[in-house]
Amino acid sequence: MAGTASVLTDNSFLSRLDQRLFSIEKILVLIGGLAIFSLMVMAVFSVGGRNFFNRPLSGYVDWIEQIMPLIAFVGIAYTQRVGGHIRMDILIGQLKGRPLWLAEFVGTLAMLILMILLVWGSWAHFQRSFDFSVPMWSRDSSIDIGLPLWPAKLLAPVAFFILSLRLVIQLWGFGRAFATNAAHPVAVPLIEDAATQAQREAEHVSGLEEDSK
Amino acid sequence: MTTIDIGLIVTGLLLLMVLIGVRVAFAAAMAGVIGLVWVFWSKKGYDPNQFFWALGVAAKTAGQVPHSKVSSQALSLIPTFILIGYLAYYAGLTRAMFEAAKKWVAWLPGGMGVATVFATAGFAAVSGASVATSAVFARIAIPEMLKIGYDKRFAAGVVAAGGTLASLIPPSAILVIYAIIVEQDVGALLLAGFIPGAVSALIYGGLVVLMATVNKDLGPSVSGFTWGERFKALPPALPIFAVVIIIICFIYNPFGGDAWGTPTEGGAIGAFIIFVMALLHGMRWGQFKDALTESAKLAVMIFTIIWGVLIYVRFLGFADLPGAFSDWVTSLDQHPMIILIMILLAYAVLGMFMDAIGMLLLTLPVVFPAVMALNGGMDVTAAESAFGMSGWGCAIWFGIIVVKMAELCLITPPIGLNCFVVAGVRDDISVQDVFRGATPFFVADAITIAVLIAFPSIVLWLPSLLLG
Amino acid sequence: WNVSLWGKRRAFTEHVERLAELVNEKTDGEFTLNLSYGGLSNNRENLDGISIGAFEMAQFCAGYHADKNPSITVLELPFLGVSSLEEEIEVSMAVYNHPATQKDLGRWNATLLMPSPLPQYNFVGVGDAPRTLEDFEGLSVRATGGIGRAMETLGAVPNSMSATEVRQALDSGVVKAVAFAPHAHMSFGTIESGDWWTTNMNPGTVNCPVVANTDALNSLSDAHREALMSSIPESLQHYVDNYNNNTMEKWGPALDERGIERITYTDAELDEFRSAAGSIAQNWVEENKAKGLPAEELLDLVNSTLAN
Ligand code: NA
Ligand code: NA
């Protein structure tokens, strides 16, 4: 099961596009990380407020439910760029050259079609909760303190749209690799064998260790 | 064609997509959307003019799932638990744990191996991720073992197997995922993991001692640590116990009196304490940013599988496949326990090729109702059930067994991730060496699973004592 | 038709179960309602599913998402003075039949068929029982939405948590009292740890209608539609009988078995509660006028229906 992949870069237009999008994705995933951190801060306020001031955080559950989509969605394109969405690559890992690029192209195309359908579906879900003509533009609200739900619902189609952009770049990359029979194509996640992957994972973790000394 | 037929065909398509390398989350979502289109279109008699209507209804039905399913308070434990693990490295807890365990048990035959098992178990109490645990201990424990003449396969196997404890001993992301999919109490499942995790660690430890006693070349004992050194090694590791106790106190107060809050709050407060410790230990913004990015990436990966699989599950609801499968399983002319064991064997085979979280998410929506039906249903009493436990008990017990099965898949060839990670850290140890070294631990795991099946009270005692 | 419910079969879904039986009988199995408990949708997205056309009938609660259905939230206001399930049905149907309500639900392509009447919520709590208005000062309670706001006006401190965490929160002292209808007190286990129950505080309830997809309803043959619509009164009657005879029958003994003290407030105290919470109805009117709803008219309708 692959959890990471490497992406090559060069000075081509495609690669520059890839890197430009990657810099946006990096900011988004960090926002997701900060959202995780905010869960902790909220718990401290909730528990502290309850125990020391008899003043629990009003709508604690509602706020958690608002933050969860931020954590779950905004990093989705980043995770695709770095090959973080798991898959079984026993079979596809055996392929090399053109057959591999073709297989990857088809798989990526299928993903892109799916994501376009989901952009449509999740946008419709957002739209049902949004109405310019009412206060807070809200047609759907949370159960306890009535927070408008449309901002959280909007995150899904936006994140899926960015993922679709990422998939278009990868589709282009695999298509070009197939056309030119490239050995080392840019802008696409390359399969690493399990050992290389593990090496990277291990380096990352031990990097953490050394840093903290 | 009935909806059940559609359900079976689409499920076949899903397995095919996973097999040829489509990313699991998206394969599941795609199968779900295709299935929904099919079901809605079939309602209109496959009228070509109605195809786009069916496509629209399917896309909109599927499009609700991501937001609706991830907006859950219980799921918030997953990113929290992941972040706890990353922050624990910066807080210096890993090495402290190993040093303390070493000074206390290294005098045993294979003592450093036992120390590694106990240290991984202790670290498991703050880490939710098995692979990361193995990677860290491959770095810390293996060099020390090799230095004093341990067999390298043996040392590598201990680390790979020890890492698997992280998912059983809470906090555990995978137990939370199980709880959410089968709609059971998260707190009860987390509590249920403690004793089986400890039992697993003891069985691993016993196995290490036994092997080192039989074959003196595997791992010599180390003596000479004074009691003074032993006690001095404890305080740096204590924060782990403090955090564990705090998390427990939010579920149930063992000192009598009120618990301190809810599991959700407990997880988050535990993470916050480790965050403060990491700051005191010298963590800076760059490292914190790294921890945030890595946690967010892992959380997104897990959440994407969750909503992807739930789109497929939504389709299953329209096709009523889980109902049909559990009717079929309960109609089999076999003792329920035999069927359960067949199901577990199927998990063992599947686990050789699949990732633990993906495997559980893909199978549980169909398998869980069937297991519950085998036992006699959700509301059955212990006396009338097939496995001798109430519906609630069976749900918890099966969760622990299945997570243990998923852990086993981390050390079985050909795709045992923990083994790859250990080999990745050490240039001098090949993947084959690690698999060879980990083999005795399959036996230990099989024994553990048999013990948990024979004595369900090991799983159920703590949750029913504290919550029942 | 596919019908989207949630949880499992219980007193709260008996009218839909009965409706399915009756329709099946009357049409000789030509028209069937397939009840699904949670398989087709999340409970908070049932209106979305109706609007998309993913299923034809669903149950939901107004309080899950006030902004989706502002009109029927009038029925969830505190201290309305509803005293029986029959009255709850009557007042619900009056609001459901109001053109503004029909327009409000029309946005979701939904037609209101019938309510799922629940008795008024009351508190089960631990520790010293609140015997007077002052005793609520600083009391931490689990009460969401309108009931939570009402309790706030009495000086209580509402906490939010999901229903499944309630029992533990009560055990652990995170909250001292929990508001539910009796069946929920029994199923979420609050009575296992509770010491007292307020018999007549009646701070409101949730309103959970059953709706049909309007297009699907209109495209039914006359015979099928007749079979459906004519079965509604009998289904509701079955629901009420079941709730009163089976659920409430268990409730008294359940309290006695556990030695739970019944706290009953005098009329004077209840009037005090009501006046303390009086501004809530007014706020509701203001907020919903802003949403373009004839809010005053709806509130008057509720009050006049209950006065008769
Ligand atoms: Na753990
Ligand atoms: Na494996």
UniProtKB/TrEMBL annotation, chain A:
Known partners and oligomeric status: The complex comprises the extracytoplasmic solute receptor protein and the two transmembrane proteins.
Keyword presence, Flavoprotein: no
Topology class, membrane: Multi-pass membrane protein
Classification of source organism: Bacteria, Pseudomonadati, Pseudomonadota, Alphaproteobacteria, Hyphomicrobiales
Keyword terms of this UniProt record: Cell inner membrane, Cell membrane, Membrane, Transmembrane, Transmembrane helix, Transport
Chain's role: Part of the tripartite ATP-independent periplasmic (TRAP) transport system.
Family classification: Belongs to the TRAP transporter small permease family.
Domain of life the protein comes from: Bacteria
Residue intervals passing through the bilayer: 27-48, 60-79, 100-123, 154-174
Protein known as: TRAP transporter small permease protein
Record domain Tripartite ATP-independent periplasmic transporters DctQ component: where: 39-172
Subcellular location: Cell inner membrane
From TrEMBL, chain B:
Parts of the chain that traverse the membrane: 6-39, 74-92, 112-142, 154-181, 187-212, 233-255, 267-286, 298-317, 337-368, 380-403, 441-462
Protein topology in the membrane: Multi-pass membrane protein
Primary location: membrane
Swiss-Prot/TrEMBL keywords: Cell inner membrane, Cell membrane, Membrane, Transmembrane, Transmembrane helix, Transport
Tagged with keyword DNA-binding: no
Residue ranges of coiled coil: none
Domain TRAP C4-dicarboxylate transport system permease DctM subunit: 13-457
Compartments where found: Cell inner membrane
Keyword Membrane on entry: yes
Cited function: Part of the tripartite ATP-independent periplasmic (TRAP) transport system.
PANTHER family in the record: C4-DICARBOXYLATE TRAP TRANSPORTER LARGE PERMEASE PROTEIN DCTM, SIALIC ACID TRAP TRANSPORTER PERMEASE PROTEIN SIAT-RELATED
Protein name: TRAP transporter large permease
Source organism of the structure: Maritalea mediterranea
Biological classification of the source: Bacteria, Pseudomonadati, Pseudomonadota, Alphaproteobacteria, Hyphomicrobiales
